[in-house]
Design a protein that fits this description.
There is one protein chain. The chain has 568 residues and is of the alpha+beta class. About 8% of the residues have low confidence. It folds into three domains: 194 residues, Histidine kinase-like ATPase, C-terminal domain (Heat Shock Protein 90); 119 residues, Ribosomal Protein S5, domain 2, CATH 3.30.230; 182 residues, Ribosomal Protein S8, Chain: A, domain 1 (2-Layer Sandwich). Helix content is 33%, strand content 23%. The strands form five sheets. The chain has an eight-stranded mixed sheet with strand order 5-4-3-6-2-1-7-8. It has a five-stranded mixed sheet with strand order 9-10-13-11-12. Helix 2 packs parallel to helix 6.
Amino acid sequence: MARIKRLPFEVSQKIAAGEVIERPFSVVKELVENSLDAGASEIRVELLAGGKRLIRVQDDGAGMSREDAELCFERHATSKLSSEEDLEKISTLGFRGEALASISVVSEIVLKTSDGQGEQGSRIERKAGEAVAITDVAFPRGTSIEVKDIFYNLPARRKFLRSEQSELGHIVRYLSGVALAYPDVRFSLLHGRREIMNCPGVGSHRERLFQIYGKDVLDRLLEIDFREGRGWVFGYSSRPPGGRPDRAHQLFFVNKRLVKDRVLQAALNQAYRGFLEKDRFPEAFIFLTLPYDEVDVNVHPTKAEVRFHESQFAFHLLLGSIETALLKARGVKEIYPKAGEAGATMGVGETTARPLTRAARLEAPEQMALPKSGPAEEEKGRPRVLGQYLDMYIVAAGEEGLLVIDQHNAHERVLFERYKEIDVQKKWPRKTPLIPVLVDLSPPQVVSLEKNQPLLEEAGFRAEAMGGRTYALNGFPDIFEAEEARDVLLQLLDEIGEEESDRRREKILATLACKTAVKAHEPLALDKMDYLVEELFRTSNPALCPHGRPIIVKIEKAEIEKGLKRNP
């Protein structure tokens, strides 16, 4: 008896659909790309329950005739390729002819479209890949597609969908990204009755960056405009020594396609090596243009990755473009500070950079800060502090050797555990400013705030909507000044959007600890070092900071004696 069998057609259809459609975000991505390929100048996305109940994408693009509308649901039916040679120079976002076929297999779908050539358009309704009804309908030039109850017929897949807010977050981040690549197109997003995004078409990428991310982000970026041979790089990246604590604002576009690519990521990292503070990452919105036949976009089912015909050329093109922008900015001011050079001047319109050492950190409430004076009492077996190395590391003598302690990571651990105690008691000390601090949020940050507002309020942050994407920060932990609290809130909104509930709480506390801990390159008096070491060894985990980085390096006595050729 044969062990290998052909799968039933309906099963193989669902498997194939699952390779393209992973979640509501996948549906939105495929439909929006079709709208852009159709030449739309306006794209409207409507969602219910984060896209799990309903996704509607409507555009004013070229639309379709009745014949094309019926054919578009067939697998590998496409208007974007006609021969094998076309695969070598793909210029459209979509091309496989799998999107609508795959979507219709795992949902109920209603298509309305008109190419503007006749008096009426077409309406096609399908369910589980089968046509239900085809009728005439009054409809303007363009296309509307409604997708209802995604994975209703695949309960195993549906149960793995994330929460409504998580699924919405994926979609908002995608639309914010693709809107950057097409600044002349109007994008809007409604979730239920609430408008999350409304970006009218503008004349430049700079204006679109302002629409989505606001003036603060735009002001800390350098413009890149670099051509070499057949390649062109345009975009914006960080003005040193700024950067962010994460890579949330690193977006790469290749021929207007939003992609993830290790070659481009590596070039960005190398360009900023030595220019940013420790644990900071550059912001970058990079648009790379290459001949279509030098980029293979057919390497991933969801078209999220590309392969360059000459990856070294792409690497050096991006590296050279950023280095040129940095050098140009360096010529505007005397120096461009590298990591550790506190207080150096910055680019045009910038004030003196904030020094890495923050004396104000020692002015926090007593239960959260290092002591102002007075050595800690000696405890038997506790390491004895010898001094500070490079204003970064505390050197202490233990029973079995020397300990080199990262002062920032150590203070993070101490503060993290104290903040956890405060968090359990739900008694976080809070400041209320006389004048609320206004904060403009990007669309993804709005979604993150709504998802995490109870947790943030428990940690001392209170933000109220003021209209549009502007919020008033009228309460924050009293360990911060107003502007610093604003920056911390924005960082938290970017960092905790995708974390699970229990991990979000720990992430908030870890970030607060990081922001209030003593910094590298900060000189400490002996009594403060002594106190910090004492408190560190009272914590539950003196070996690791809340982010998982090591705190202590131990140099064994035996290793010292071996190196000095001592024979005890």
